[in-house]
Amino acid sequence: MSGPPQGEQPEQAQRVADDAPGQGPVAASRLRSAKSWSPSRAAALALLLGAIVTAGFALTTLALYRSSENRLLDLRAREVGSVLTAVVPSIQTPLASAAELADATRGDKQKFRAFMAPYVGAGKQFVSASLWPLGQTRARPSTIMGARPVLTTHPQRAAALFARAGSSTSMGVIGVLDGPDPSLGFEFATPGVKHGFAVYAESPLPKDRRSKLAGNSAFSDLDYVLYLGHSQNTAKLLLTSVKLPVEGRRASQTVPFGDSAFTLVVTPRGPLDGSFFADLPWLVAIIGALVSLAAALMTGRLARRRQHAERLTVILDRTAAENHRLYTEQRSIAQTLQHALLPDEVPDTNALQVRASYVPASSGIDVGGDWYDFVNVDDDRMLLLVGDVSGHGLPAATTMAALRHAALAYAAEEPRPARVLERLQAFVNREPHRYFATVLCALIDAGAHELTIASAGHMAPLLAVDGEASFVEIDAGVPIGVAGGASYAERKIQVSPHSTLIAFTDGLVERRKEVLDVGLGRLRDAVEGTRLPLGDLLSKLVGELYTQDHHDDTAIVGIRWRD
Amino acid sequence: MAGLGNHGAELSIEAQREPGGAPVLALAGELDISSAPSLEAAVEGVVAERPELLVFELSELEFMDSAGIAVLIGASRQVGAVKLRNPSPIVRRVLELTGLVKVLQVEP
């Protein structure tokens, strides 16, 4: 009959394995978030946003500019209208005065000529001035100054004009008189005078009606079109500075002129508010586009950096997880090796029940130096070895392996505990070394209920029966590997039926800043009063005595007499 | 006796000399797996002069584990004799349980 050694190792392995998957979801979520961030998409988004904002600004600027220009144009049109209004009296007043003079002097030619002389002639206000007696059956001028009136070539229009002369207080304006010298005619007669006179004057018009304003004029920024009458009728076009029809923005103004009116149309020759404001919408658009482009590039760059950083994080996470896994694996390998070095079967017999357990240190990947071995001497007797090599890591494990094999050989050859220790001591002291080992060697006679024990610096085992427990009193010799300990004492004791022997290494009882006896007492108290199955007892001892942060590994062996 | 000790145990070592000329290492604090290497180095410095006797003054040593014992054993292999002076009860018990009281001189 045999059973596997009791071990805490699977639980340990499970605990460390649980830590590793924790890294997984974190890394995965970061990977997902990294995928959702495309630098080109972010840049395009930034560009689109910039374009929208820029377009908004540019359009607003344009609208403001246009509204401002329209307002300015209206203002300029009114200004030109005022100038025109101021011109009207300069035409009407001489005519009205001359008409009164003619009425008073009964059409005196000399006086009329003398009065009108300053106004008539080349480069003056009128090219022609004439005096027309009213109430005649046929309208004919009595006196003519300057050029012959064009009106005389239009007898019907002349008749119509003078028929209504004197009926109103306003100056009569006769439309454009076509001919070799197109002219504009004005008539004035003092109302309410019988046999009165009408004064008639003409001003020449350019043949193509084209006229430019002087470059230094206050209105040099405007083009204009001037019509006679209340509408923009090209047949009544008086003057224009621009080729008709007028395109683009324009404003019109109507100014009363005698019994007719001037209709003025102005259009800007350039931006009225200066070219800066005209260019402002474009300026805004260009700057906005540049800023958007820069923002897009920056966004793309930042997004790429972020993506890079996230990838790096994922890689670091993976590396950390991998390191953790490797560490766990290495630790697990070390523990597996350690466990593999220990007997995988304990020699349960008809007479003896045997359980053993090895608990690795909670930290570090080093292999411990604790071990146990069983040697079947004959049907009744079994030799137990429990040892603890000082130090840790591979050297300790190597020393342990060498000691174990030597001890097994000596035990098989000469199954006497003291002799086994003495020969081990001699074996180890043959060569200089830095390590030493405590070893407990016990010969268990199942049939005779006898126990023979020797110790090389190892702690004495606990013997329990019927709920009572006490440490076997042995005279410990020096550890294996310490010079001077050439011989070991043996102690042989009789054990009661159903006794339980608990052998262990110091990891089970040693605690910092504590006298060893306290730890030993704790072990004894834990065993006393219990009647647990052997396996359960070992589990209980490991569970109760082994501190959470144990920095030492430990081995524990339980042997129980079945009768 | 395996495992990495990660306690920050402080051990102070003071090299002195007996009136008779024997070197003395006075230990204070805790001698465990993390502080043992520094004592090992101190021992190596002292044994270089091959003294007949090396004294460890242990009255201020509060704790010692198997790693400390290994250093003491190592020292005993290199000099004629090692004397452990004034060990505390904790330290003395470790010496007794490991049988070292038989090979090392412990006083009182």
Question: What key phrases describe this protein's structure?
Answer:
heterodimer; A: 563 residues; 5-stranded antiparallel β-sheet; 10 helices; B: 108 residues; alpha/beta; 5-stranded mixed β-sheet; 3 helices; disordered N terminus
Strand elements of chain B, count: 5
Which structural class do the helices and strands of chain A define?
A: alpha+beta
**Secondary structure: number of strands of chain A:** 20
- Proportion of β residues of chain B? 25-35%
* Series of H and E elements of chain B: EEHEHEHE
Q: From the helix content, strand content and strand pairing of chain B, which structural class follows?
A: alpha/beta
Distance between the termini of chain A: 16 Å
Radius of gyration of chain A in whole Å, from Cα? 64 Å
Major sheet description of chain A: 6 strands, mixed
N-to-C series of helices and strands of chain A = EHHHHEEHEEEEEEEHEEEHHEEEEEEHHE
Main sheet: strands, sense, barrel of chain B:
5 strands, mixed
Spatial ordering of strands, largest sheet of chain B = 1-2-3-4-5
Strands in their spatial order, largest beta sheet of chain A: 1-11-20-19-16-17
Helix share bin of chain A:
40-55%
Helix content of chain B: 25-40%
End-to-end span of chain B in angstroms?
28 Å
Oligomer: heterodimer
Q: Please compute the radius of gyration of chain B using only Cα atoms.
A: 13 Å
Mean pLDDT across all residues of chain A, rounded? Answer: 80
Number of helices of chain B: 3
